Amino acid sequence: MFSRPILRRKQTLAAAIRRLSLSSPDSSPHLPSSLSRYGFRPPPSLSPRDHGSGAADASGSERRKGKPRYRPPSSLDREGQNPLHSDLPFDFRYSYTESNPDVKPIGLREPKYSPFGPGRVDRIWTGTCAPAVDPTVRTLDGGDGGGEEGDGKKQARRRSREEILGEPLTPAERKILVDKCQRNRNKRQVNLGRDGLTHNMLNDIHNNWKHAEAVRIKCLGVPTVDMNNVCAQIEDKSGGRIIHRQGGTIILYRGRYYNPKKRPVIPLMLWRPHEPIYPKLIKTTIDGLTVEETKEMRKRGLAVPALTKLSKNGYYANLVSMVRDAFLTDDLVRIDCQGLERSDYKKIGVKLRDLVPCILVTFQKEQIVIWRGPNHGGAAGTPGYS
């Protein structure tokens, strides 16, 4: 038997617990009386109102309805949007270094579908480019085709570019920018590969100029055969200035007064257009030679020692000077291109033909065989030499 003080304390404690359970707003009548009596608060997951399908389903349906509908970037439905307009004064091409506007194709591999998407750009796609001037217009009032007004627009463009670039950089400023763009300090880089300076790369360059005054460009592959053309096209199309060049690495400066909010409008190409059809590079007979002499030259060219072996996605800036030096002693030069894509070593052959210059003999067996031509002079008895 308990003593009276102990019983009195127990009765007082029980009365206090009863008053607490009755005054608690979180007590649930659906729970056992023992849990309610001692003030047990159930977690939200065990609450009876959470087991219903009312509020939870309603909130879930609201969240699902509030999610925006997925729209792919290449959606063909413009929904009444106006075509994009760009004030860039040059023709839009897929590649500005690997395409020559002076060479006219003899046909197209596909219909004239714009790589920008239907109705997205207010320029007509001709199959090779999107010209800045509508090709269907016959007369132009103040066009860019030439004359004083055309020259005036070119001068205005040059003045605008010089205003953005500002004063030339001092040697100290140039060194600071070059050091900031080194690989050990900055991982940002724009890669220029076999396609050369593409149209969408211009947008990548301006995106990098948002965060830094200069951007590093790494050049590899076919375009490096003619690095002077690559540098000229990068400066002309982007509006920047090259402040450092070492091998295939270029540092491109945006200018002192460049404003990212006033960057030019550059519509993006959604897919790569097919290359048009050009005349054959290798003719059945070389000009000035007979069929037998051409066959003999091709056979002899494949047997001469290789001048060099090109690696895939390598740096080929010294190739033109190597071929010119080889032509001082030999009339035929063979370049080993095993492992390269056929389209790649064909482009290399075209660049050598224009830069050396020379005559293409054959592309058989993944080799480039070139002839220095009859105007160089050579050993007596060589076919085609005077």
Automatic annotation (TrEMBL):
It comes from the Eukaryota. Residues 20-93, 135-164 are annotated as: Disordered. InterPro entries: CAF1P_plant (IPR044599), RNA-binding_CRM (IPR001890), YhbY-like_sf (IPR035920). GO terms for cellular component: ribonucleoprotein complex. Residues 20-36 have a biased composition (Low complexity). Residues 150-164 have a biased composition (Basic and acidic residues). GO terms for molecular function: RNA binding. It holds the Pfam family CRS1_YhbY. The keyword Transit peptide applies. Signal peptide: none annotated. Keywords: mRNA processing, mRNA splicing, Repeat, Ribonucleoprotein, RNA-binding, Transit peptide. SMART domains: CRS1_YhbY (SM01103). GO terms for biological process: Group II intron splicing; mRNA processing. This is CRM domain-containing protein. Residues 167-265, 287-383 form the CRM domain.
